Amino acid sequence: MNINNLITLLLITFWSVAGFAQKSTQIESSGKNYELRAVAELGFLSVLGHKVQFSKSGTYFDYRKSGGQDVLFPVSRLSLELEVNKKNTFILLYQPLTLESQVLLENDLIVDDLVFPANTGVNLLYNFPFYRASYLRELLSSHPQYDLAVGGSLQIRNATISFESTDGTRFRTNRDVGPVPAFKVRGRAWLGRQWYTEIELDGIYAPVSYLNGSDNEVVGAILDASWRLGLQIKEPLKTFLNLRYLGGGAVGTSDDDAGPGDGYVRNWLNFLTVTAGAVHTF
Fold it and tell me: Could you give the CA distance from residue 250 to residue 174 in angstroms, rounded to a whole number?
C-alpha cells in the first residue's frame, strides 16, 4: 500500500466513525454520545541538539553549533479529536516544522560527496512536518477526577533537508516520505473545578525494516512527550500552556537511495517547544 492510499484510508476511517457517531446520536434518545474538539497551539521551538550526516564520508554536522539553529523558531500545531461514548478517541494531527537558516561555514561541510568549503555561505533548510492519526481507549471513564487512555498512532513523515551555497553553485537535498507507527498514552488530572494537568506521549524505537517491511538496515526512533496545564474558562472553551519534548531520528544505510552518496544517513534531533493554546468543544 503506498502513502497516498494509506492517508486516504485513514481519512475515510476517521470520517466514517464520525458519521456513525452522529447517526447514533440522532437515533438514541439518551442524548449526545460523542464530542468533537478542535485544538490549536502557537509558540516557539528551541533546538536542544540536532546533528545530521549524509554518506559515511560526510560531515556529522551540528546544526545548533554550526548551522544557525541556536535561536528560537516559531511553531504551531493543529488537531481534531473525536470522542465516542467517553471511551474511544480518534485524533488527526498536523505538525508543521520548518527550520531555515543561513550561515558562514567555519569548516568544510561534506554532504553526499559534495564539499561546501569553509568561509563560504550556505542556506540550510530542515523541513520535517508530519501528519498523525491516533486512537486512544479510555481506561478510567467512570472516574470523576482522573483520565488514563492508551492506544497507538500512525505518523506520516514528510521530510526535505537541503544545503545550498549562497552563490547557487553547490546544492544537495534529501527527501523522504514514510509511515511511522507509535504507541500512545495520555493522562489527565483535574486540580479542582477549573484547572487540570495533562501528560501525553507518542513513541517507538525499532528497525525501519520492522516498520515498513523493507530490507533497509536503518534504526529509527521518535518521542513526542508533553506536559500541559489547562484552565476551563467557560464551556465550550479551554486554554492551556504546553511544554513539549520532540525528539528522534534514524541511523543506517538505505538500499533505496539512488545517489549521490552511498545512502548512509545519521540524523538525530532534540527539540523543546513552549506553546499556548486553546481547545474548543463542539
Answer: 14
